[in-house]
């Protein structure tokens, strides 16, 4: 198959980040809110793995600042978490892409946990209290959603004339 045009890749990239931001902001019932997957980290990790030529650190930083403003969290909290997460995924890309999807999912769990730890650490430093187990629930739900997100994004890319690696 032919590679998609750079404009198509950029359009898909920006549109998917916008969708992830909207999904991150959708209000859920309290019972489900604690287990909300980390949509922006999921989408940024997907693009960091799938399209290594795309710049992902700057969009991760900017999306993190947007989350900081939208959640009224300490300025830079989500930006720090997203940049660290994306940096790890980019540096370990060659490690993740050699595995089948289920093994890559397991290999990414420490990255999701690190993101949750950074959010926990900054909240602790700024004295924002939350129950400990609620801090780690998003890492679990994100790991569970990773294969679904990867499969859906690959299906969308293949229908739009994307390539197979």
Describe the model.
- One of its GO terms (biological process) is regulation of cell shape.
- The chain crosses the membrane at residues 58-88, 95-121, 133-152.
- It is a multi-pass membrane protein.
- The chain contains eight helices and no strands.
- The radius of gyration is 16 Å and the shape is globular.
- It has a single domain, classed as Arp2/3 complex 21 kDa subunit ARPC3, CATH 1.10.1760.
- The protein starts with 5 loop residues before the first helix and ends in a 6-residue tail after the last helix.
- 75% of the residues lie in helices and 0% in strands.
- With 165 residues, it is mainly alpha-helical.
Brief digest:
The chain has helices at residues 6-25, 30-33, 39-50, 57-71, 77-91, 93-96, 101-125, 132-159. It has 165 residues and is mainly alpha-helical. The protein has a single domain (6-159), classed as Arp2/3 complex 21 kDa subunit ARPC3 (Orthogonal Bundle), CATH 1.10.1760.
Number of strands: 0
* Gap from first CA to last CA: 10 Å
Task: Please report the first level of CATH classification, the CATH class.
Answer: Mainly Alpha
Average pLDDT figure: 88
Q: Supply Rg.
A: 16 Å
Poorly predicted runs of 5 or more residues: none
Classification by helices and strands: mainly alpha
Secondary structure: helix percent:
over 70%
| Elements, N to C (H/E) | HHHHHHHH
Number of domains: 1
The profile of the biggest β sheet is: none
Looking at the overall shape, the CATH architecture is Orthogonal Bundle
Shape: globular
CATH fold-level topology:
Arp2/3 complex 21 kDa subunit ARPC3
Q: Supply the number of helical segments.
A: 8
The portion of residues forming beta strands comes to: under 5%
GO cellular component, one term: plasma membrane
Organism: Solimonas marina
GO biological process, one term: regulation of cell shape
Membrane topology: Multi-pass membrane protein
